[in-house]
Amino acid sequence: MRVLWINQKATLQGGAEQYIYNTADEMKNFDIQSSLLYDANEDVHNEFLDMFDEAFPILNVYDQIINIQPDVIYIHQLDDESIYKEIIKTKIPTVRFFHDHKLFCLREHKYTTLGKKTCTKKLGLGCYGCLGFVNRSNSALGFSIQTLGKLEKLQKVNKELNHFIVASEYMKEHLELHEFDNESITVNPLYAAKKFEYSTNTNFTANKTLLFVGQLINGKGLDALLKSMHKIDEEYNLVVVGEGKQEEYFKHYCKELKIEHRVTFVGKLNHEELMEYYKRAYCLVVPSRAPETFNLVGIEAQKVGLPVIATAVGGVSQWLKHDVNGLLVSPNDIKDLQEKINLLIEDKKLHQRICFNVLKTSIYEHDSAAHTSLLIETFQNKLGVEYV
Fold this sequence. Notes:
35% of the residues lie in helices and 16% in strands. It is an alpha/beta fold.
């Protein structure tokens, strides 16, 4: 079987790109060949390109697909309506993985501009009311206008694809809300990279570090976590892993809250470095207000054996069961977040029980081979692709 991957970026920086890189690597164990088409105007890393049997910048996509002759086309981040039309013209089976809300939100992140409230509504005229159509950009004006018409056209052409894959039941329901065919959607949960493994030498209960891992943007809710630190045991500090356009704002906010001595920003880390921070943490906190399509960070932490406190938004409840393998909190609820963190700090037996349950639920789940097997099964049973 030959799979043609199509993605705008050919880099290891984003979550979608990490998924593509890791899954193309896993497919080699199933004797599947992988080709790649990418946008040469976007970021390109040679290490990423080397994962594929062949890789080409997108030029004349119809002719390129015909020359490659893939058995299935696997689309990821792609925003060009004309390219979709050329792909569909080839008549080759197509499947798309939805990694985010870009197709379903004018501001891409599914929380309101005013009030920063989590949004799960259908895309429509009401979206203009939250001012989400005004986005920052590198243009001379400093902003760009996103229109409802453009997204509706992209949704329409996407619906002409043969099948769709999402990581959570939440995201499947969101596609159905936007009138994607229920029978054409498969839920295939994400997995943690093999480098994230539990170590018997780790004693999380003895650690005094709360950990945040994610983009430094408002949708991830770091501001709520920072504000909650005032009423968290002062023996516990916060380490922030990641980078993003709000980084300087969050650092300034720490000074405003007078907690800068308790918060350390370490920037973006590779898998090996991140693993060490997981091992040295007491728990991972995921305070997102934007509905997560899945949240891979939480799975990575659980694979290491680390308890997770997360907001009950989007697909988080797919893998985190409250008071079993973690604790759920309400988005934007500072008091609830403080209470749950303090509860996990004060009740060591609860912390130990959750650590134990994390290992029970994660050691056999969220496995790369299982994910890839279901992917191949989907290609076979839903698209009629032969796999010998």
